[in-house]
Amino acid sequence: MFSLFTKVPSISATDLKKKLTSAITLIDVRTPSEYQMGHIAKAKNVPLDQIHMYNKKVQTIYVICQSGMRSAQAARILKKNGYDVINVQGGMNQWSGPIKGGK
């Protein structure tokens, strides 16, 4: 049975940086304005309030936000919808790699 306390696997921002060398699906669940201020180049913006509508057929989804709280929420929703999800702990606050501004 699914609950809000379902554990979702997580990785560090450092581990995410290593994963970015291959083709992965990375979703940034921050607001569009936060995303435009700076995001990881491979990240697609799907704000938390729209995550329940996400329906792409992908293997594993990595989810990031600013601190790791909203992405953990989003990860639980995606997991409930049948996705294999990994949360990025600490979010963009822990990210030390390059960021891209704009859309």
From TrEMBL:
Gene3D superfamilies cross-referenced by the UniProt entry: Rhodanese-like domain
InterPro entries documented for this protein: GlpE_sulfurtransferase (IPR050229), Rhodanese-like_dom (IPR001763), Rhodanese-like_dom_sf (IPR036873)
Rhodanese domain span: 20-101
Cross-referenced SMART domains: RHOD
Protein name: Rhodanese-like domain-containing protein
